[in-house]
Protein backbone atom coordinates (compact mmCIF):
# COMPACT_ATOMS: atom_id res chain seq x y z
CA UNK A 1 0.00 0.00 0.00
CA UNK A 2 1.44 3.39 -1.03
CA UNK A 3 1.91 6.27 1.38
CA UNK A 4 -0.95 8.18 -0.25
CA UNK A 5 -3.36 5.25 -0.04
CA UNK A 6 -2.48 4.72 3.63
CA UNK A 7 -2.93 8.32 4.76
CA UNK A 8 -5.54 9.78 2.39
CA UNK A 9 -8.43 8.98 4.78
CA UNK A 10 -6.59 10.78 7.60
CA UNK A 11 -5.91 13.81 5.37
CA UNK A 12 -9.52 13.81 4.19
CA UNK A 13 -10.92 13.86 7.74
CA UNK A 14 -8.53 16.62 8.83
CA UNK A 15 -9.75 18.65 5.83
CA UNK A 16 -13.40 18.01 6.83
CA UNK A 17 -12.84 19.14 10.43
CA UNK A 18 -11.02 22.28 9.29
CA UNK A 19 -13.79 23.08 6.79
CA UNK A 20 -16.47 22.65 9.48
CA UNK A 21 -14.50 24.87 11.88
CA UNK A 22 -14.48 27.58 9.20
CA UNK A 23 -18.27 27.15 8.82
CA UNK A 24 -18.77 27.74 12.55
CA UNK A 25 -16.43 30.76 12.52
CA UNK A 26 -18.31 32.32 9.60
CA UNK A 27 -21.64 31.66 11.32
CA UNK A 28 -20.35 33.37 14.46
CA UNK A 29 -19.34 36.40 12.41
CA UNK A 30 -22.67 36.83 10.58
CA UNK A 31 -24.71 36.11 13.73
CA UNK A 32 -22.86 38.88 15.57
CA UNK A 33 -23.93 41.22 12.75
CA UNK A 34 -27.59 40.32 13.32
CA UNK A 35 -28.37 37.67 10.69
CA UNK A 36 -31.32 35.42 11.59
CA UNK A 37 -30.47 31.83 12.61
CA UNK A 38 -33.34 30.21 10.72
CA UNK A 39 -32.66 32.26 7.59
CA UNK A 40 -29.08 30.92 7.59
CA UNK A 41 -30.39 27.38 8.02
CA UNK A 42 -32.95 27.76 5.21
CA UNK A 43 -30.39 29.05 2.72
CA UNK A 44 -27.82 26.44 3.77
CA UNK A 45 -30.18 23.49 3.25
CA UNK A 46 -31.53 24.95 0.01
CA UNK A 47 -28.02 25.15 -1.46
CA UNK A 48 -27.20 21.63 -0.23
CA UNK A 49 -30.39 20.26 -1.83
CA UNK A 50 -29.59 21.97 -5.15
CA UNK A 51 -26.03 20.58 -5.04
CA UNK A 52 -26.90 16.99 -4.06
CA UNK A 53 -30.00 16.41 -6.22
CA UNK A 54 -28.07 16.09 -9.53
CA UNK A 55 -25.56 13.77 -7.82
CA UNK A 56 -28.40 11.61 -6.49
CA UNK A 57 -30.04 11.42 -9.94
CA UNK A 58 -26.74 10.45 -11.57
CA UNK A 59 -25.31 8.04 -8.96
CA UNK A 60 -28.56 6.59 -7.56
CA UNK A 61 -30.90 6.45 -10.56
CA UNK A 62 -33.38 3.97 -9.04
CA UNK A 63 -33.87 5.83 -5.74
CA UNK A 64 -37.44 6.96 -6.58
CA UNK A 65 -38.76 3.39 -6.95
CA UNK A 66 -37.80 2.61 -3.34
CA UNK A 67 -39.15 5.88 -1.91
CA UNK A 68 -42.16 4.76 0.15
CA UNK A 69 -44.49 6.81 2.35
CA UNK A 70 -42.82 5.41 5.47
CA UNK A 71 -39.39 6.47 4.21
CA UNK A 72 -40.63 10.00 3.41
CA UNK A 73 -42.14 10.25 6.92
CA UNK A 74 -38.84 9.14 8.48
CA UNK A 75 -36.93 11.63 6.33
CA UNK A 76 -39.29 14.39 7.48
CA UNK A 77 -38.45 13.73 11.14
CA UNK A 78 -34.79 13.26 10.21
CA UNK A 79 -34.80 16.74 8.67
CA UNK A 80 -36.64 18.18 11.67
CA UNK A 81 -34.24 16.72 14.25
CA UNK A 82 -30.93 16.63 12.39
CA UNK A 83 -31.52 19.76 10.35
CA UNK A 84 -33.97 22.39 11.51
CA UNK A 85 -33.90 22.03 15.31
CA UNK A 86 -30.21 21.14 15.55
CA UNK A 87 -29.15 24.14 13.49
CA UNK A 88 -31.54 26.45 15.34
CA UNK A 89 -30.35 25.44 18.82
CA UNK A 90 -26.66 25.36 17.91
CA UNK A 91 -26.72 28.74 16.16
CA UNK A 92 -28.49 30.39 19.12
CA UNK A 93 -25.90 28.85 21.44
CA UNK A 94 -23.08 29.98 19.14
CA UNK A 95 -24.44 33.54 19.15
CA UNK A 96 -24.10 33.77 22.95
CA UNK A 97 -20.81 31.87 23.34
CA UNK A 98 -17.83 31.29 21.04
CA UNK A 99 -16.80 29.03 18.19
CA UNK A 100 -14.41 26.99 20.35
CA UNK A 101 -16.97 26.60 23.12
CA UNK A 102 -19.73 25.44 20.76
CA UNK A 103 -17.43 22.82 19.21
CA UNK A 104 -16.99 21.22 22.65
CA UNK A 105 -20.67 20.29 22.57
CA UNK A 106 -20.24 18.78 19.09
CA UNK A 107 -17.71 16.40 20.66
CA UNK A 108 -20.47 15.23 23.02
CA UNK A 109 -22.68 13.92 20.21
CA UNK A 110 -21.14 10.39 20.14
CA UNK A 111 -21.58 10.17 23.93
CA UNK A 112 -25.20 11.36 23.81
CA UNK A 113 -25.92 8.93 20.99
CA UNK A 114 -24.43 6.08 23.03
CA UNK A 115 -26.52 6.97 26.11
CA UNK A 116 -29.72 7.15 24.05
CA UNK A 117 -28.95 3.83 22.37
CA UNK A 118 -28.30 2.37 25.83
CA UNK A 119 -31.71 3.55 27.08
CA UNK A 120 -33.41 2.13 23.97
CA UNK A 121 -31.69 -1.23 24.38
CA UNK A 122 -29.59 -0.88 21.22
CA UNK A 123 -26.34 -0.74 23.24
CA UNK A 124 -25.20 -2.52 26.39
CA UNK A 125 -22.48 -2.18 29.01
CA UNK A 126 -20.78 -5.21 30.52
CA UNK A 127 -18.95 -3.82 33.55
CA UNK A 128 -17.06 -7.11 33.96
CA UNK A 129 -15.29 -6.59 30.63
CA UNK A 130 -12.53 -4.10 29.89
CA UNK A 131 -14.47 -2.58 26.98
CA UNK A 132 -17.61 -2.16 29.13
CA UNK A 133 -15.67 -0.36 31.87
CA UNK A 134 -14.08 1.90 29.24
CA UNK A 135 -17.50 2.83 27.82
CA UNK A 136 -18.85 3.61 31.30
CA UNK A 137 -15.76 5.67 32.24
CA UNK A 138 -15.80 7.57 28.94
CA UNK A 139 -19.48 8.42 29.38
CA UNK A 140 -18.92 9.73 32.92
CA UNK A 141 -15.91 11.82 31.82
CA UNK A 142 -17.94 13.46 29.03
CA UNK A 143 -20.86 14.20 31.33
CA UNK A 144 -18.46 15.75 33.84
CA UNK A 145 -16.91 17.86 31.07
CA UNK A 146 -20.36 19.01 29.98
CA UNK A 147 -21.19 20.14 33.52
CA UNK A 148 -17.93 22.12 33.74
CA UNK A 149 -18.58 23.75 30.35
CA UNK A 150 -22.09 24.79 31.38
CA UNK A 151 -21.63 25.82 35.01
CA UNK A 152 -18.01 27.07 35.21
CA UNK A 153 -16.79 29.83 32.90
CA UNK A 154 -13.53 30.55 34.73
CA UNK A 155 -10.93 33.23 34.31
CA UNK A 156 -9.95 34.60 30.87
CA UNK A 157 -6.66 33.18 29.59
CA UNK A 158 -5.78 35.81 26.97
CA UNK A 159 -4.99 39.46 27.60
CA UNK A 160 -6.86 41.65 25.13
CA UNK A 161 -7.43 45.40 24.63
CA UNK A 162 -10.29 46.89 26.65
CA UNK A 163 -12.36 47.65 23.54
CA UNK A 164 -12.27 44.01 22.38
CA UNK A 165 -13.08 42.67 25.86
CA UNK A 166 -16.11 44.93 26.05
CA UNK A 167 -17.53 43.50 22.82
CA UNK A 168 -16.85 39.92 23.94
CA UNK A 169 -18.50 40.47 27.33
CA UNK A 170 -21.57 41.80 25.55
CA UNK A 171 -21.79 38.71 23.32
CA UNK A 172 -21.32 36.23 26.20
CA UNK A 173 -23.48 37.78 28.93
CA UNK A 174 -25.92 34.87 28.56
CA UNK A 175 -23.20 32.19 28.60
CA UNK A 176 -25.27 29.65 30.56
CA UNK A 177 -28.30 30.20 28.31
CA UNK A 178 -26.06 29.63 25.29
CA UNK A 179 -24.68 26.48 26.93
CA UNK A 180 -28.18 25.11 27.45
CA UNK A 181 -29.08 25.72 23.80
CA UNK A 182 -25.85 24.02 22.68
CA UNK A 183 -26.58 21.05 24.94
CA UNK A 184 -30.13 20.84 23.53
CA UNK A 185 -28.67 20.95 20.02
CA UNK A 186 -26.29 18.09 20.78
CA UNK A 187 -29.16 16.01 22.23
CA UNK A 188 -31.37 16.57 19.18
CA UNK A 189 -28.49 15.83 16.81
CA UNK A 190 -27.71 12.62 18.69
CA UNK A 191 -31.31 11.46 18.28
CA UNK A 192 -30.94 12.11 14.55
CA UNK A 193 -28.16 9.50 14.33
CA UNK A 194 -30.50 6.86 15.76
CA UNK A 195 -33.24 7.75 13.26
CA UNK A 196 -30.74 7.88 10.40
CA UNK A 197 -29.48 4.39 11.28
CA UNK A 198 -33.02 3.06 10.78
CA UNK A 199 -33.44 5.01 7.53
CA UNK A 200 -30.17 3.57 6.22
CA UNK A 201 -31.58 0.04 6.52
CA UNK A 202 -34.84 0.81 4.69
CA UNK A 203 -33.46 3.32 2.20
CA UNK A 204 -29.71 2.86 1.54
CA UNK A 205 -29.33 5.81 -0.83
CA UNK A 206 -26.99 8.32 0.82
CA UNK A 207 -27.07 11.12 -1.74
CA UNK A 208 -30.82 11.09 -2.39
CA UNK A 209 -31.75 10.76 1.30
CA UNK A 210 -29.50 13.72 2.14
CA UNK A 211 -30.92 15.76 -0.75
CA UNK A 212 -34.50 15.04 0.37
CA UNK A 213 -33.61 15.77 4.00
CA UNK A 214 -32.00 19.07 2.98
CA UNK A 215 -35.08 20.00 0.91
CA UNK A 216 -37.45 19.22 3.80
CA UNK A 217 -35.17 20.98 6.28
CA UNK A 218 -35.20 24.13 4.14
CA UNK A 219 -39.02 24.14 4.07
CA UNK A 220 -39.27 23.50 7.83
CA UNK A 221 -36.74 26.24 8.64
CA UNK A 222 -38.54 28.74 6.39
CA UNK A 223 -41.93 28.01 7.99
CA UNK A 224 -40.50 28.19 11.53
CA UNK A 225 -38.76 31.46 10.70
CA UNK A 226 -41.97 33.03 9.38
CA UNK A 227 -43.85 31.87 12.51
CA UNK A 228 -41.25 33.27 14.95
CA UNK A 229 -40.30 36.44 13.06
CA UNK A 230 -42.54 37.86 10.32
CA UNK A 231 -39.99 40.51 9.40
CA UNK A 232 -39.34 39.81 5.70
CA UNK A 233 -36.31 42.10 5.62
CA UNK A 234 -34.36 39.39 7.48
CA UNK A 235 -34.36 37.33 4.27
CA UNK A 236 -32.32 39.91 2.36
CA UNK A 237 -28.62 39.25 2.83
CA UNK A 238 -26.55 42.36 3.39
CA UNK A 239 -23.03 42.28 2.00
CA UNK A 240 -20.53 39.81 0.62
CA UNK A 241 -19.83 38.12 3.98
CA UNK A 242 -23.40 36.86 4.48
CA UNK A 243 -23.72 35.65 0.88
CA UNK A 244 -20.35 33.86 0.90
CA UNK A 245 -21.13 32.32 4.31
CA UNK A 246 -24.37 30.63 3.25
CA UNK A 247 -22.84 29.48 -0.07
CA UNK A 248 -19.78 28.03 1.68
CA UNK A 249 -21.93 26.39 4.38
CA UNK A 250 -24.23 24.83 1.79
CA UNK A 251 -21.62 23.68 -0.74
CA UNK A 252 -18.77 22.71 1.60
CA UNK A 253 -20.39 22.24 5.04
CA UNK A 254 -23.51 20.33 3.95
CA UNK A 255 -22.36 19.03 0.57
CA UNK A 256 -18.67 18.23 0.19
CA UNK A 257 -18.01 17.40 3.85
CA UNK A 258 -20.92 14.95 3.92
CA UNK A 259 -19.62 13.15 0.81
CA UNK A 260 -16.10 12.88 2.27
CA UNK A 261 -17.37 11.65 5.67
CA UNK A 262 -19.59 9.05 3.97
CA UNK A 263 -16.56 7.83 2.00
CA UNK A 264 -14.45 7.63 5.18
CA UNK A 265 -17.16 5.67 7.02
CA UNK A 266 -17.29 3.23 4.10
CA UNK A 267 -13.50 2.89 3.92
CA UNK A 268 -12.47 2.97 7.58
CA UNK A 269 -15.65 2.67 9.65
CA UNK A 270 -17.68 4.92 11.94
CA UNK A 271 -15.23 4.69 14.88
CA UNK A 272 -12.34 5.98 12.75
CA UNK A 273 -14.45 8.85 11.39
CA UNK A 274 -15.80 9.86 14.81
CA UNK A 275 -12.32 9.93 16.32
CA UNK A 276 -11.45 13.10 14.36
CA UNK A 277 -14.26 15.25 15.82
CA UNK A 278 -12.01 16.93 18.46
CA UNK A 279 -9.91 18.40 15.63
CA UNK A 280 -12.74 20.80 14.83
CA UNK A 281 -12.34 22.35 18.28
CA UNK A 282 -8.57 22.73 17.84
CA UNK A 283 -9.03 24.49 14.49
CA UNK A 284 -11.86 26.59 15.93
CA UNK A 285 -9.62 27.73 18.81
CA UNK A 286 -6.93 28.86 16.36
CA UNK A 287 -9.52 30.78 14.30
CA UNK A 288 -11.11 32.23 17.46
CA UNK A 289 -7.83 33.63 18.81
CA UNK A 290 -6.08 34.69 15.61
CA UNK A 291 -8.97 35.98 13.45
CA UNK A 292 -12.11 36.55 15.53
CA UNK A 293 -10.15 37.75 18.62
CA UNK A 294 -12.47 35.80 20.94
CA UNK A 295 -11.58 35.24 24.58
CA UNK A 296 -10.69 31.75 25.82
CA UNK A 297 -11.73 30.90 29.40
CA UNK A 298 -10.37 28.34 31.85
CA UNK A 299 -13.71 26.52 32.13
CA UNK A 300 -13.80 25.98 28.36
CA UNK A 301 -10.31 24.44 28.39
CA UNK A 302 -10.94 22.15 31.38
CA UNK A 303 -14.37 21.01 30.17
CA UNK A 304 -13.16 20.45 26.61
CA UNK A 305 -10.18 18.36 27.76
CA UNK A 306 -12.48 16.18 29.87
CA UNK A 307 -14.95 15.76 26.99
CA UNK A 308 -12.18 14.80 24.53
CA UNK A 309 -10.62 12.31 26.97
CA UNK A 310 -14.03 10.77 27.61
CA UNK A 311 -14.75 10.58 23.89
CA UNK A 312 -11.55 8.66 23.11
CA UNK A 313 -12.05 6.32 26.07
CA UNK A 314 -15.56 5.53 24.80
CA UNK A 315 -14.35 5.05 21.22
CA UNK A 316 -11.59 2.74 22.45
CA UNK A 317 -14.14 0.71 24.39
CA UNK A 318 -16.41 0.46 21.35
CA UNK A 319 -13.49 -0.57 19.13
CA UNK A 320 -12.34 -3.18 21.67
CA UNK A 321 -15.89 -4.53 21.98
CA UNK A 322 -16.19 -4.89 18.19
CA UNK A 323 -12.82 -6.65 18.08
CA UNK A 324 -13.82 -9.08 20.85
CA UNK A 325 -17.15 -9.78 19.14
CA UNK A 326 -15.38 -10.51 15.87
CA UNK A 327 -12.94 -12.93 17.52
CA UNK A 328 -15.40 -14.60 19.89
CA UNK A 329 -16.53 -18.20 19.22
CA UNK A 330 -19.85 -18.62 17.45
CA UNK A 331 -22.44 -21.31 18.10
CA UNK A 332 -23.50 -23.69 15.34
CA UNK A 333 -26.94 -25.19 14.83
CA UNK A 334 -26.16 -28.12 17.17
CA UNK A 335 -25.26 -25.76 20.02
CA UNK A 336 -21.49 -26.43 19.71
CA UNK A 337 -19.01 -23.58 19.95
CA UNK A 338 -17.04 -22.99 16.76
CA UNK A 339 -13.98 -20.79 16.38
CA UNK A 340 -14.18 -17.84 14.01
CA UNK A 341 -12.66 -18.45 10.59
CA UNK A 342 -10.42 -15.74 9.16
CA UNK A 343 -10.52 -15.48 5.41
CA UNK A 344 -9.57 -12.98 2.77
CA UNK A 345 -12.37 -10.51 2.03
CA UNK A 346 -14.18 -11.14 -1.22
CA UNK A 347 -14.04 -8.41 -3.84
CA UNK A 348 -17.21 -7.54 -5.69
Q: SSE layout and pairings?
A:
Blueprint (H helix, E strand, L loop, with lengths): L2 H30 L4 H23 L9 H28 L2 H8 L2 H11 L10 H22 L10 H10 L3 H28 L3 H23 L11 H29 L1 H5 L3 H15 L5 H30 L2 E2 L5 E2 L10
Antiparallel strand pairs: 1-2
Helix pairs in contact: 1-10, 1-12, 2-3, 2-9, 2-10, 3-8, 3-9, 4-12, 5-8, 6-8, 6-13
GO molecular function: transmembrane transporter activity
Keywords: Membrane, Transmembrane, Transmembrane helix
Pfam family, one: EamA
Tell me what the structure shows.
Helix content is 75%, strand content 1%. It contains 13 helices and 2 strands. It has helices at residues 3-32, 37-59, 69-96, 99-106, 109-119, 130-151, 162-171, 175-202, 206-228, 240-268, 270-274, 278-292, 298-327, and strands at residues 330-331, 337-338. A two-stranded antiparallel ribbon has the order 1-2. Strand 1 (330-331) and strand 2 form a beta hairpin. It is globular.
Which key terms come to mind for this protein?
13 helices, 75% helix, disordered C terminus, 2 strands
Radius of gyration: 21 Å
Order of helices and strands: HHHHHHHHHHHHHEE
Main beta sheet: 2 strands, antiparallel
Distance between the termini: 20 Å
Number of DSSP-assigned strands: 2
Q: Helices and strands: which structural class?
A: mainly alpha
In one word, what is the shape? Answer: globular
Strand order of the largest sheet: 1-2
Strand content: under 5%
Low-confidence runs of at least 5 consecutive residues? 163-172, 335-348
Helical amount among residues, as a percent range?
over 70%
Mean pLDDT: 78
GO molecular function, one term: transmembrane transporter activity
Main location: membrane
Pfam family, one: EamA
Membrane topology: Multi-pass membrane protein
